[in-house]
Design goal:
This protein has about 80 residues and is an all-alpha fold. The chain has one domain. Helix content is about 70%, strand content about 0%. The protein is built from five helices and no strands.
């Protein structure tokens, strides 16, 4: 991940991150299917536990615009 910078990749940052993390596997599809199952058939308690964390994950890690904005504000590439 040290070779991956937001400035160089721009909006394709999310795709590059997913390629690094998933390595061609279908883990993201299984995760999405599990979240859909919890949303439809899960109990209220399961939804309270798993869905907010999934929303935060989608807003931070899988959002291509969020890292670009963070980089412009904090200039994180100079630190690492």
């Amino acid at each position: 991940m040290q070779t991956l910078t937001v400035v160089d990749t721009g909006l394709s940052y999310m795709q590059a991150c997913l390629e690094y993390y998933l390595d061609g596997g279908a883990f993201f599809l299984l995760y999405a299917a599990a979240l859909l199952f919890i949303l439809i058939a899960g109990t209220k308690r399961e939804q309270q536990i798993f869905l907010p964390s999934a929303v935060l994950l989608l807003l931070t890690v899988y959002n291509p615009i969020f890292p670009v904005v963070l980089n412009q504000i904090f200039d994180v590439n100079k630190e690492y």
